Amino acid sequence: MLLLRSTSGLNWECTIATITYTEPFSSSGLKGFFLFSHDLNPMTTTTQIAPKIVANLPQVGSTPLLLINSLSTDRVRIWAKAEWQQPGGSVKARAAHAIITNAIRSGKLHKQNTLLDASSGNTAIAYATLLRHIGWKPTICLPSNASAERKNILRALGAELILTSPLEGTDGAQEVARTLHAAHPEQYYYADQYSNDANWQAHYLTTAEEIWTQTKGQITHFVAGLGTTGTFVGTGRRLKELGHIELVSLQPDHPFHPLEGWKHLATAHRPGIYDDTVADKSLIIDSSAVFDMIRFISAHEGLYISPSGAANLLGAKEVASGIKDGDIVTTLADTLDRYTEIKKEIFGI
Description:
The chain has helices at residues 42-55, 92-106, 122-132, 148-156, 169-183, 197-214, 230-242, 290-301, 307-320, 340-347; strands at 2-5, 11-14, 20-27, 30-37, 65-67, 76-82, 114-118, 139-143, 160-164, 188-190, 221-225, 246-252, 281-285, 326-332. By secondary structure, it is of the alpha/beta class.
């Protein structure tokens, strides 16, 4: 708050959110000053109103934990978090919300620039869904072989899409995003979900706590596939602090797998947030068995799960086959509704 006094003795109170300067004027015999505001740094204004902006974002998390009866016995139970029940329809709502919130509060993301990131689709949809609530739109580098549904959803949400090589996957999309940001740093905030600590921290603070509460601390194993690795690393780290829990990471069996969002780490860029010391055990998932699991879960549970969710259940099933008692928890990232080509191939609809 500034108190300004004119040469005629009048006082004005002004609240100034940006850098200001004054200029003398004279009009009708009244001498004083005009107050001009020049915003040299748009981030300054945004950080001051960040709490109000963030408050307009929808809430994420608090998803149900489902007992998969058809894969469970009286002594070994398999549970799955229904992560599609969030804004944007996938598990990625958690990381996207944390990344956006941190960027706005720090002043790195503001009204004068654009969130930029590479994604296989779900994180992009989460970004676009959340940002729509505050009137902002992201720019997404997306492999051109992402499902038609994901592209259509993103365009409907107003996201700008930059389609990248299908052969290079999200690794190629990340390279395009980095190049674009380097050329126009003032135009973009590069979220870089693969190296952004807010990604795994979102799961550390929410997913793990929810699982621990929902299982009443009875969880014995946590099983999850590796993509950005945020879900596994964040949830696993916190669960290890809460109890004696075995952490099992999953990967596809070859580079050209049908699991959108997953990485075959032997042939892909290693995400910056990945920590290979978190997993107690790693399993390779047979990609050819994924469609059969989708059919099985549809028939026995009435759920149309996505390929990645089916792969997680395959991993959980393998873990279950090796123990006599326990509660195994995994995640179902999204539903089959985003994969109509696969849905048609499997079910003919």
